[in-house]
Amino acid sequence: MAGKLLDIFKEIQDNRRDLSKLHDLNDILVMAIIAVICGADTWNNIEEYCEAKSDWLSKFLDLKNGIPSHDTFNRVISAIDSNCFERCFIEWVSELIKVTDVKEIVNIDGKTIRGAKGHGKKSPIHMVSAWAHHNNLVLGQVRVNEKSNEITAIPKLLEVLSLKNSIVTIDAMGCQKSIAEKIIEKEADYVLAVKNNQEQLFEHIEDEFRFSKEIETSEDIDLGHGRIETRKCSVVNNFQHIENQSEWAKLKSIIKIESIREYKNSDKPIEKATRYYISSLDVTSKEFQYIIRSHWSIENKLHWSLDVVFMEDQSRKREENAAQNFSVLTKIALNLLKNEKTAKVGVKGKRLKAGWDNQYLEKLIKL
Question: Other C-beta atoms within 10 Å of 244: how many?
């Protein structure tokens, strides 16, 4: 795996002057990734880890000039062109993807790196990421421009991803005609949440479910965490009230999810919610239940891990491309950790084990 990482990183241009280079760019990146895998969350942590493991690292890296300082790690990695770095990441991930018997479900959602801010201003770093539900992998990321939003970032991410025969799920921010069209162009299908940001479409969907006589439904009951949650999924394919439906690329289904959450042994009131979706798929309500629920895996498996295990929200990296590029390092580490199956512990436990046990680390990165 380290060899593959080295090969991919060779595409990254090193803009440093030759006279000032004491360490190869690829070596710096591989050291940083290994350190992040083993628990390093700051530039100082990376230097300290590499110093402690210099003998082991020297078995496959050129360390004749010693370990780079934390300032060197910061300066060199922050100066890398982020777009190129992200392309390399996406290319590397594409080699890890395993073909499954069912369509891959790709969840797309945004996350703010809250610590990367200064002078009391709102955080300028907001990343949109794609998560492969079945493969358990981060597929890619793009940064949202400071004066823009996810609507402009999502098409950029879709453009660079290989999505053929997959199902793309996005929350209401991504419910745009241009985004639906882009997904179809990529030979994929979409399931997009609809809220009042598409006010006319939202009202037409409400009317469709109010008056349609051709509604297919299914019900799912989930018991756990001290609560009972009942979800009813309703699907309409024969539209009577959706105006200008041809403007939504290959629109075939509208979906309504009605959920009721009751708490056992608690005085909490019953919670009710209704959510709507549009899709290019023509599948059963039971299948839509599964696809829509899978969207939460990007929150539970990616965003939660980044915040709780890698402490991304506490990151104070701000200079140049520091936060964006460190986020790539973190996601490379997360992909490797999540897809190592021999250690029966969580991602946090695997980071500790990798830091303590060189044999396990070698297995993790496939040296």
Answer: 10
Residue 274 half-sphere exposure toward CB, CA atoms < 13 A: 8
Q: Are 137 and 121 in contact (CB under 8 A)?
A: no
The model's pLDDT over 225-234, given as tens digits with 9 standing for 90+, comes to 778 889 999 9
- Say how many residues make up the chain: 367
Q: What is the pLDDT of residues 70-113, one digit of tens each?
A: 999 999 999 998 888 888 898 888 888 876 778 999 999 998 87
Cα(67)–Cα(65) distance, rounded to whole angstroms?
Answer: 7
Q: Considering only CA atoms, which of 58, 2, 56 is closest in space to residue 26?
A: 2
Q: Which residues contact 148 (CB under 8 A, 6 or more apart)?
A: none
Q: Which of 307, 329, 305 is nearest to 78 (CA)?
A: 329
Strand, coil or helix: 223: strand
Residue 102 lies in a domain: no
* Three-state DSSP class for residue 86: helix
Query: Domain range for residue 353?
Result: 2-86+335-365
Residue 194 buriedness (CB in 10 A; 0-12 / 13-18 / 19+) = buried
Q: Which of 169, 108, 112 is nearest to 140 (CA)?
A: 108
Cβ contacts of 277 within 8 Å, gap of 6 or more: 191, 192, 193, 194, 254, 255, 256, 257, 288, 292
pLDDT score of 224: 76
3-state secondary structure of 113: coil
Give the end of a domain, one of 264, 285, 306.
285
Per-residue pLDDT of 180-193, as tens digits, reads 999 999 999 999 99
Q: How confident is the model at residue 3 (pLDDT cuts 50, 70, 90)?
A: very low
Counting the structural domains of the chain, the total is 2
Residue 325 domain flag = no
